[in-house]
Design a protein that fits this description.
mainly alpha; two-stranded antiparallel sheet; 2 strands
């Protein structure tokens, strides 16, 4: 899809012209616009400064298009554009909220209203502005459906968008409709959602729309169990949007995907993909995978990720997570030794809690259950256990002993004690693993 470059011809619009001069063309625009810029605005140190009321003469669609350009710069890693994004959202909000109905005689402004709503705009502004559009206007009907989505009513939104075909709208609107419809269907119709998100990416390459669609597609591919597609989408994100302010959400989806798809994902491809990041990012990703895997009892995956992290840098967290994963399956004494050697001072409070929990598990597994503990021998009694058939005790003697166990029943009792001890150990492991999960939920996933 081709969009013409947006250039603003209003004198004094320093905010808009400054950002356009720095990056217009990052997003192609569907509608035609003038190809020259006239501005008396001032730009210093990469930040555009507008004079009071400089945006008063701007059409709403011009502000919204500029907002799109700034968002594309953010997606590419220009974090300095965040104040500009906030400013433009405010400008667009004021423009839609305070303008007379005549403003919406322009089709471009009507389309800009729904684009603004799908780009993070104020739902209240959309709701108040919609009556200015004709009852049969497709933008108004779309806006009414969007209200369900932006107001957090997923079921109503899914029903409202059920019959909506994104491609029935102009391209500048279609990309957003594809994105939000794909997003809302990701849980209920993942295959359909992935197709819609693919469409959004193809219609808007190099934009925040593509960045968002990629992030959401990664999670959907995980849900569908498509490991190869998961890796491919993740690589596209890493190569293009790793500096996006929303990259932490990608990291969440990526780590969750590796854990979920552990049986089918190509680990060699994962190593190559993570290798595209800088060393600190690589370490954090591997540590997060190791942490999640360890808490879930995924010994092999935790060991893999911890080893990768240790190859990048010596970090006590890698030792902690690898020990967590092997505490119930490896040599417990060796695990206890490793846990004891970890420098607590180099761990965050959350990881110190995990260290304590792991130590509890290992200690419990090495302690002797009360049921299996041998009684203290009486003075003078031999400490050597006698092995041989149980003596035969007459029934009369046995009945005289009442509830006292016979040696035969003692033998059975010993077997029960062993079973009880095993069950106790398993219960300790299960309970402490649940405790680990609760601690992890409380302190969050990201190692500090």
């Amino acid at each position: 899809m081709a969009r013409a470059r947006l250039d603003i011809t209003v004198a004094g619009c320093g905010v808009i012209v400054g950002l356009l001069a720095a990056g217009a063309g990052n997003r192609a625009l569907a509608a035609e616009a003038p190809s020259h810029v006239v501005s008396s605005g001032e730009v210093r140190n990469g930040d555009a400064t507008a004079t009071e009321g400089s945006h008063a003469a701007l059409q709403p669609y011009q502000i919204v298009r500029s907002l799109e350009l700034v968002q594309d710069r953010l997606a590419a890693g220009d974090h300095a554009s965040q104040p500009m994004q906030r400013k433009l959202i405010t400008m667009a909000d004021e423009s839609f909220a305070t303008r007379e109905s005549a403003r919406f005689e322009n089709e471009m402004n009507r389309r800009a209203l729904v684009i603004y709503a799908m780009s993070g705009g104020n739902p209240t502004t959309l709701e108040k502005a919609l009556p200015h559009l004709g009852k049969d206007d497709p933008n108004r009907r779309l806006g009414e459906k969007i209200l369900f989505y932006v107001n957090g009513k997923p079921k109503e939104a899914i029903d409202a968008f059920a019959s909506v075909d994104p491609m029935s709208y102009p391209p500048d609107v279609a990309i957003y409709v594809s994105l939000i419809k794909g997003s809302m269907l990701s849980d209920v119709e993942p295959a359909n959602a992935l197709a819609l998100l693919d469409k959004a990416r193809l219609l808007a390459p190099g934009t925040l729309v593509e960045e968002a669609a990629l992030r959401r597609s990664i999670a959907v591919a995980t849900r569908l169990g498509e490991a190869a597609r998961f890796v491919r989408l993740s690589e596209q994100y890493v190569r293009s949007y790793l500096r996006s302010p929303y990259a932490s959400q990608f990291a969440d989806a990526f780590v969750a995907g590796i854990v979920e798809l552990r049986e089918t994902v190509d680990r060699k491809a994962v190593v190559e993909l993570v290798g595209l990041m800088d060393e600190e990012q690589q370490k954090v990703i591997y540590l997060r995978i190791a942490r999640r895997a360890a808490i879930n009892g995924l010994v092999e995956l935790a060991a893999f990720a911890a080893t990768q992290a240790e190859e990048i840098a010596d970090d006590p967290r890698a030792e902690l997570y690898s020990s967590l994963s092997s505490v119930t399956s490896g040599n417990v004494d060796e695990v206890l030794h490793k846990l004891g050697a970890i420098d607590r001072g180099s761990l965050s409070e959350g990881d110190r809690q995990l260290l304590d929990a792991a130590s509890v598990i290992a200690s419990e597994l090495t302690s002797t259950p009360a049921e299996m503990a041998a009684p203290n021998p009486a003075h003078g009694e031999s400490r050597v256990r006698k092995v041989g058939p149980a003596p035969v005790i007459p029934a009369s003697v046995a009945s005289d002993r009442g509830n006292e166990s016979t040696p035969g029943s003692a033998t059975l009792g010993s077997g029960r004690a062993v079973d009880t001890g095993v069950e106790r150990a398993e219960a300790v492991v299960a309970a402490t693993r649940a405790r680990l999960a609760e601690i992890d939920k409380m302190i969050g996933e990201m190692p500090k």
